[in-house]
Every structure is written in C-alpha cells, then in structure tokens.
Amino acid sequence: MYGLLIYLISGVIIAQVFRMEYWISRFFSLLALCLISFILSFFFPFKPVFYSVFFVFLVLGLWQLKRKGFNFDYRSETAFLLTFLFFLFLRSLAPEAFGAEKLMDFAFLNTVLEAERFHPPDPFFAHGTLNFYYYFGYVIGAGITLMSFVPLEIGFNVAIATIPAYFLMLGYGLLRELAGKDNGNVNGGLIVGTIFIACSGNLYAVYELITDFVKGKLPTFLFYWNATRVIDDITYGKTINEFPYFSFIHADYHAHFVALPIKLLALILLWRYFKKDVSYGFYLIPIIFILFATNSWDAPVFLFITILAFIYRYKSIRDKNELLKGGVIVFVSILSILALYSTMETPSARPFLTGERTDIWQFILFFGILIFLDYLYFKDSFEEGFKGSISYRLGLVSVVAGIVGFFVSPIMLLIVPLLVLSFRKYLKGDFGSMLILSASLLILACEFVAIESRLNTFFKFYLASWVLLSIPAAVVVVEALKSEDKMNKMNKTRYFVIALLILSFVYPLIATPMKYHKAEFSLDSSRFIKEISIDDYNAIQFLKGKRGIIIESAEGCYSYEGRVSAFTANPTLVAWSCHEVQWRANPDELARRMAEVRAIYKSKDCEVIREIVKRYNVSYIFLGYQERKDYGVSSLRCFKEVYRSGKTIVYTTR
Q1: DSSP string of 403-446?
Q2: Total count of domains within the chain
Q3: What beta strand segments (E) does 181-292 contain?
Q4: Nearest C-alpha neighbor of 380 from the set 519, 517, 493, 248
Q5: Is the peptide bond before 254 cis (omega within 30 degrees of 0)?
Q6: HSE-up of 387 (CA within 13 Å, CB side)?
Q7: Quick check: pTM over 0.70?
Q8: Chain segment 517-544, per-residue pLDDT in tens
C-alpha cells in the first residue's frame, strides 16, 4: 500500500520537470526517465541506473515546483487515478502472470530488472540476449515496479493497471483541446467521449450477443475474446483484430499494449505541432524513437503522420525555416531509429503482396461504429457539397470511385469516400481529418501489402488505425451530446450517435465480468505457482538471488514451462520454443537444445549429461511438477541435491 502511494506521489513530482500541460508532462516525464535509464543501461546495471536517474528527476521536480509553482490539473489526475484503481481492482480478481503470454511478459520484465547491461539476457534461450525484440515497454514496466518499491510479483500488476490509466488521461486531455473545453456545456460529453476512446467495443460483440440470444444462450468466457477474431485469413483462419479495451482487460503486458498511451502522447504532440508551436515537433523525436523501441510497427505510421503535419505547416506558413525544422524532426527521428536498429538482430520481416481481400461485412463488424461516426465528422462537408459545384463533383467522383473500388476490394466502398473527404479537409488545416486520412491509407495498404504475415499486419496496423479513427469519432460524440438548447447542426444526429454509443459499450459491459469471473483479491502474480505446486514455489524462492543457467522442462509453450526462469531471472537452456523460433528463426538449434534437455532428465549416461551441462555452463537443474509430468522422472542420479521441498528438487552441477 505504501509503495503504491510512493509511486503515485512520485509521478506527480517528476511531472514538474517538464513545463508542459500537466497531463502531457506526467507521462512524458515517465518516458524521459525510462529513456535515459535505457541508454545508460548499455553501460551500467539497470537497477542502480534507474534509481539514480529517478532521484535526479525527483530533485529537479521539487526544484521546478519551488521555482515555478505547482503544475497540476486535478481533472486529469482524477481521470488517471480512477482508471488506475479500476484496472488494479480487475487485476486483483485474477492477478496471475499465467495464461496467454503473461509468463513470457513476466520473464522479460524480470530479465530487464536484473540486467547487468543491455541488451538483457534472453530468459528462454541461455547465452542469447533480447536483441531480437523491441523491449522498451518492459523498461517502462520495470521502472514502474522500481518506483513502487514493490517486488515484481506485485509490480507486474501495477504496471498493467498504469497503461490504461495513462491512455484515458491523455485521451481526456486531447479530446478537451480538440472539442473545445470552453465551447458550451461539454463536460458530460467530454467524459463520455473519453470513455468511448478508451472503452468502446465493436459491432461484432453486438452481433454475437444477438446470435446467442436467438439461440437461447448466455454469453460465455470467450465472449471477451471472439470480438478480436473477426476478419478471415486463409492461412491462420482469422486475423488478430484487437482494440484498446480488449488489450486492457486481456492484460498481456505486450509491446502493442504498452504502446497505446505512447501513441496518444504522439498524437497530442502532433496536434500541438500541427496547430500551435513547432517546439512540440522536436518533442516528437524521442517519442517516435520510443514508439519504435516499444512496438516497431508504430514508428513508420507516426513518421508518416509527422510528415503530413509538417507539410501542412509549410503549406500554410510558406516559410523555408519551417521546411528545415520539419526535415530535422523527421531526419533525426529516423537516425535515432537506425541507431537502435543497428544493435538488433531481428529476423527479416519482408513485405509481400497479398491477394486476399477483406469481407465488407466483417469489416463493418470490426470498424463499423468508428467509420459511421467518422463520416458524421464530415457532416458540414456534406452540406457544403450541395452548395458548391466543385465540392459536389468531388464527392460524386469519390462515391463512384468507391463503387468501382468495391470490385477490387469490397472495403473500398467505405474507405475511398472517407479518404477523399479527409484529404480535402486536411488541406484546410483540420487535425481530425489528418488522422482519418492516415488511418484510411493504412487500412487500404493492409488490403494489398502484408509484412511478415497478413495476420500480424492486420493486428498491428488495425490497432493503430482504431486509435486514429477513435479521436475524431469521440469529437463527434462530444458535439452530439451538447445541451439541447444549443441549436447546433450535430444535434440533428444526436440520437443516431447515442445509439452507436450504446452499441459500442455492449462489449465492455459484458466482456469485463466474463473475463474477470474470479475473485482472488490479491496482486500477487505468482499465486498460480503456489496453486499448481507449493513445492515448486518454495524451490523457486530458494533460487532467487542465485545466478547461473538453469535447466527446466522445455516441452511446452503458453504454459507452465519457463516459470523457474521467469521468476528467478536466471536464463534457462530453452523454453517457449514456439516463440523463440519466430524471433530467432533457428529451428535446428532449438530442436537440438530441446533434445538435450530431454537427455538431461531421461538419459542414464552421466558422462553424456555432464558434457551437455559443461557445454552450456549450467549451474542448476530443476526437477518439479512439470518435469515429472513431461519426462516421467522423480530423481536425477548424476548431480548433487542442493534443495528439496516435498517432491521438488534442485540439483547443483558444481
């Protein structure tokens, strides 16, 4: 409890370091703290580096507070705090770092925390490092844990609850600026619009609910999951179609999950750069780098939007200095990305043309609510079109192009007119239109080009598109929910907007209790180990603080294998091979290591076993619940027993 208070208070203090609006500075300061620690940790151990930089930020924050006064916004902090507590409560119901890919996330967080130098060791591939994976998100999670002064077993859930809290706070701040905080009685609308950005679901959830109702069925646990597997894929059956609220309740601490509030911060800086002050463009340089270091798929998207923003600034100002400044922002951003990329060894993810096309009905089930609201964003343009012949002809051409495009890709019927409308309004200096334009181009690109796989391309770029489309959609919500006495044009469509809002909230209202059906009321993410085997838990506690390569079961993936490495931060010879093969593209070596692990547990030839152990410099062999299950052994005779708890034994090779 005290650790959480320290975390929340210290976040307010370091927010004083950068004198931007409080809701911007609060997250920007955390990212700056983590970025400096990230860079220094290539030369020094992470923990002392982070605490040193953290102390400097605290001192600077207090100095700024004394010198310039208290930079604070109670509304933004309330939004952050309420969201944080809500998701922390959800995590307390089911706190385990187990299921889906949470065990892997915990392992990566732990290896970052304990790293002597970056790149950190790969916990699931001894003698390897995380130079194949963009792991800055785990640096953020490790930093949150250290700021909380709690063990990672608790910090894991604190970090998960923090991400949606920042997302909602930043969404509230951005929407307040875009919709106009002093433009009518919009407080209620702002709250609803902000919740829409963070919590809206898709039409598939409504479709599934109605289908179940017709069949006389109630929603099941998988209701929360099915809404993210909407669009068909020939190779994998379905593409991955996540949206923010699903990511928040699914709660895998993955790259795309951590990148969500970073995307919003980038949009806020872009808005400021687009309309107000070029200095905010320079703040984009570290943020675009952080996006790349967290979730590399987002970097080209936001570089493109940055280029659109600086093109508009140059077009509107016609100043060569503006062109130079924009060029510097883009060039330095790319240079910083290349500097990190040069240290990585990621498998080549080559783009390729795809002939598969998205079914328009499935597209509507996923994007429909946002698309309909974004068309309403151009309501004024529709009305102007009937007054101006040029606008009318342009609109007519876009509709015809959409109809023709339907035979190339069915979704072009919806996207092409939206593309034309947004491009026209972008040229007039409308920020929301720039976001819709970028999302429309991104969605269309996914129809024809895939990177690595169509499944993953849709996953990463559709999620980015969802965030981009949700901002102008939320502006429509705010406008529609203004008081009735204001006879604005949007009130003519308020009931349609309210209907879409109700449909968008079907998912969170039903999926949340379906996902969090347990009530453990704990933040201890290691509870699942105690439940599976208290003896395993005790043996893992014994290995904490000891350093060396370990051997544990290597047969499974998305499962209990790898738990010793994850919770002790000691690399294991091999675990989670299904993921390692994607990252390293080394199936032969992985198969050899898995065979050697089997030999260690099953062979009776001590000479062969010792040769394997010596080759990899193994220090400990773990024989617990999973090893007995996978290899059918209850003891090992070639090594000395150093710890025993019930049936679980730890052997030393020394």
Answers
A1: HHHHTT-TTHHHHHHHHHHHHHHHTTT-HHHHHHHHHHHHHHHH
A2: 4
A3: 232-233, 237-238
A4: 493
A5: no
A6: 5
A7: yes
A8: 888 899 999 999 999 999 999 999 999 9
